[in-house]
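Q: Please design a sequence for this.
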């Protein structure tokens, strides 16, 4: 098809990393290990939260939802990225490119909202401990989670539809490792003003409101901790939200480094590496922060392993007993 003497884009070629073959093999193995480790770690968190009674609390319920978003993000990006590395670039249809962009942005949006809800949960736990069970009861937690998922996927859909309706023609090569909004808009031959306007308008509910909730929550938490007389009490109170604060810092630092910091004069390789931080390494780091630094998770893992060992021992004893010949007197 021709429009304005330019070929309409139906397929997009992703260049990936323009590096030596040895580095590509190393990066392929590294990404594959990170992907497998991320999937296993997050599935472990989800299964432990759903099966262990000690983890049936609002905080761990939100952590399990965060694990789902991490699985969605890394699964949306890494498999196709591995294909790009193997083939020195790869072609992706325009529909698949838009779909990848949608699930990436929607999952990141849900994670952003969940982090805000989790900060409110920590605020209630530390500043209003006597009312915690009433405010953060299971029904309220489920409703908050549903709102995050529905709002995240629906509001991003508005921007994705507008992006998909633009005219894309001419050069169909993107010097990136996945379909991201900024490099995709560079292929558009129609005015992208409306898309940029929507991005700025949607950033208010998607970024400013969650950030405001997080900042206000932690200001109240810090003030409440400073009122505690004993150093042991202050340390115990801060430890309940240190993991969440670490995850929030990593998440927003990587997002800001990619989308907020000016990219003028920045090489494409650096831009690709920064993109890997929030799409690959952040989902990998999150379960490590929440599990290895958390005594409840470690106890749940030990209990699950101990239970499996006991069950195997009992099963072996029963099998041996049933296999032993019995002689009548």
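A: Design:
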């Amino acid at each position: 098809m021709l429009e304005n003497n330019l070929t309409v884009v139906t397929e997009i070629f992703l260049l990936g990393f323009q590096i030596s073959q040895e580095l590509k093999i190393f990066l392929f193995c590294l990404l594959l290990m990170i992907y497998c480790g991320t999937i296993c770690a997050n599935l472990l968190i989800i299964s432990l939260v759903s099966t262990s009674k000690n983890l049936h609390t609002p905080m761990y319920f939100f952590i399990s939802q965060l694990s789902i978003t991490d699985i969605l993000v890394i699964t949306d990006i890494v498999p196709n990225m591995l294909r790009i590395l193997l083939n020195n670039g790869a072609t992706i249809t325009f529909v698949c490119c838009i779909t990848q962009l949608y699930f990436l942005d929607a999952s990141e949006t849900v994670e952003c909202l969940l982090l805000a809800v989790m900060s409110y949960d920590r605020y209630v736990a530390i500043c209003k401990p006597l009312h915690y069970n009433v405010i953060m009861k299971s029904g309220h937690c489920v409703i908050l989670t549903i709102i995050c998922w529905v709002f995240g996927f629906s509001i991003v859909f508005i921007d994705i539809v507008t992006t998909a309706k633009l005219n894309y023609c001419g050069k169909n090569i993107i010097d990136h490792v996945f379909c991201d909004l900024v490099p995709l808009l560079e292929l558009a031959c129609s005015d992208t003003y409306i898309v940029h306007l929507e991005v700025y308008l949607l950033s208010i509910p998607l970024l400013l409101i969650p950030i405001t909730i997080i900042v206000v929550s932690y200001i109240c938490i810090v003030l409440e901790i400073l009122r505690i007389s004993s150093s042991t009490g202050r340390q115990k109170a801060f430890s309940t939200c240190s993991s969440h604060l670490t995850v929030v810092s990593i998440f927003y630092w990587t997002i800001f480094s990619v989308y907020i910091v000016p990219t003028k004069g920045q090489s494409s390789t650096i831009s690709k590496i920064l993109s890997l931080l929030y799409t690959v390494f952040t989902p990998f780091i999150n379960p490590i922060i929440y599990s290895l630094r958390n005594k409840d998770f470690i106890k749940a893992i030990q209990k699950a392993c101990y239970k499996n060992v006991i069950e195997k021992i009992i099963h072996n004893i029963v099998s041996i007993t049933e296999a032993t010949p019995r002689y009548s007197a």
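Q: Thanks. Anything notable?
A: The two ends are 91 Å apart (CA to CA). The first strand starts at residue 2 and ends at 3.
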